[in-house]
């Protein structure tokens, strides 16, 4: 099972691992005081989260309330792509969501691991579904998800 650890900002350094070798990373989520949630992945999670927090403070005056992350994963990019597809639609860009997203991430992670082999084929399938969503909408994307035999999350 993919663990999901959550900490207040003052303790985030303890749960975020240091720089990881190329090819592995962590999936993280940061809940901000302006009710936005940033979901992403990084092989340098301490630096990346610090950068996101700094940008939100500088541009929007928003402070982090909670930070969550997985342990290092060899397939973090694939896991992130699946999460982004299942959390959609984003509020801003492709990685910014509302507060419920922060609460849904652990459940989605458990479902992803329990039901799906994750790797490059899965990432390609998720990208195909994302392209269908952009071109034809949510309903067609859900149908494409099922046609590709991807797990229900």
UniProtKB/TrEMBL annotation:
UniProt domain Bacteriophage T5 Orf172 DNA-binding: residue ranges: 33-100
Designated name of the protein: Bacteriophage T5 Orf172 DNA-binding domain-containing protein
